[in-house]
Amino acid sequence: MSLDELLALPATVNVVTAARALGIGHNKAYDLIKSRQFPVRVLPIGNTVRIPTAALWEALGVSSLRVAVGGPLS
Description:
This protein has 74 residues and is α+β, with helices and mostly antiparallel strands.
């Protein structure tokens, strides 16, 4: 996933999108979530799991990159 794609993500994303951003498969992502080892905070909403994009950016170092290039923090 490119930086532009990461920056264009909505406020929360599904597990498949978060896994793609992290460079892992969605099955591995679900396994990590189930074992509480997923590297990003998850939001369980009923039978759905959403990942806050800000937390995903933080795990990937995107927030600090945006500061370094003079972009606004979100």
